[in-house]
Amino acid sequence: MTKSILVINGPNLNLLGTREPEIYGADTLDDIKNMMTSKASPLDLAIDFRQSNVEGEIVNWIQEARTDFDAIIINAGALTHTSVAIMDALLAVDKPTIEVHLSNIFKREEFRHHSYISAAAVGMITGFGAIGYLMAIDAVTDIVKQ
Ligand code: DQA
After folding, report:
1. Ligand 1 atom 9: the closest Cα is on which residue?
2. What's domain 3-144's superfamily in CATH?
3. How many CA atoms does the CB half-sphere of 56 hold within 13 Å?
């Protein structure tokens, strides 16, 4: 049976490709979406790929996962380090969640070392660039097909 995965991208990730490419790489968000979709379809996973700069919209999307999705992959961008609301939403829906970051947040400024998302995630993939999103598909496949 096809499993549905909600992929959420937070603030400023719409600018990938031109945003600090030395940190975040040259791939655009559309490139990442296409890579994920290609990898997911033979695995019988349906990917719903979204981006928002608005915290409340992301909270609403996470709440949709209660009824509409089997798992969540999330790169919350800067909201990773600030958003109790996103953490609470993830804890409330209680769906397997994989946290992704393009850069290695632990190699960067101190304020990026703490993630609110991690408290609600199965695990974190950080520092592998766009490939990290594909690694998240591997991780999520194991979990939802069990
Ligand atoms: C990021 C890391 C965050 O610290 C930053 O605010 C982002 C992107 C990453 O993918 O490396 O917007 O989540």
Report:
1. 101
2. Dehydroquinase, class II (3.40.50.9100)
3. 0
